[in-house]
């Protein structure tokens, strides 16, 4: 048995060279120990979308997100349809006091409020509402399609 300590952040050349192999071990572990399905969402199925009606991705996915929010609220929190309509969704998870800012030394996406959308087969199955700030990322809320609760998307989102 040989054990190596490999710097992951910033990624060292050893980390980059062994990434795929390490990922495959991780995936086998998750499937065997935690019974994760093989089609659990991957990083390629997650989109970070600025919360702005000016943003084309946000506008094009708004109805799907609002519908998913209502389904989640009614199933998980037993809200009535009038408690989770588009106006309530917008007020609760789209209207933000944060202004978008693109600092030269900040993240590529900038600072502000975002919807971290989890897509599977062309459909949004979860949305993490997050604020990206200069010294932290704040998880505001997560909602998901109850039909996919077996994927443990809340845990996945928190770890991500």
From TrEMBL:
Record's GO cellular component terms: cytoplasm
Spell out the molecular function terms from Gene Ontology. arginyl-tRNA--protein transferase activity
Write down a Pfam family by its short name. Answer: ATE_C
Supply the InterPro entries for this chain.
N-end_Aminoacyl_Trfase, N-end_Aminoacyl_Trfase_C
Task: Please give the coiled-coil regions recorded for this protein.
Answer: none
Q: Which residues form the N-end rule aminoacyl transferase C-terminal domain?
A: 66-160
Q: Which UniProt keywords apply?
A: Transferase
Protein's recorded name: ATE1 transferase
């Amino acid at each position: 048995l040989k054990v190596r300590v490999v710097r992951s952040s910033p990624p060292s050349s050893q980390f980059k060279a062994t990434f795929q192999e390490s990922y495959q071990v991780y995936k086998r572990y998750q499937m065997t120990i935690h019974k994760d399905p093989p089609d659990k969402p991957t990083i390629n199925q997650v989109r970070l979308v600025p919360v702005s009606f000016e943003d084309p991705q946000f506008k094009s996915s708004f109805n799907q997100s609002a519908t998913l929010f209502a389904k989640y609220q009614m199933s998980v929190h037993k809200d009535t349809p009038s408690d989770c309509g588009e106006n309530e969704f917008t007020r609760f998870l789209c209207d933000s006091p944060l202004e978008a800012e693109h600092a030269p030394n900040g993240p590529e996406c900038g600072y502000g409020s975002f919807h971290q959308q989890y897509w599977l087969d062309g459909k949004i199955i979860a949305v993490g509402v997050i604020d990206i700030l200069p010294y932290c990322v704040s998880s505001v809320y997560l909602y998901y399609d109850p039909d996919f609760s077996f994927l443990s998307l809340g845990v996945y989102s928190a770890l991500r």
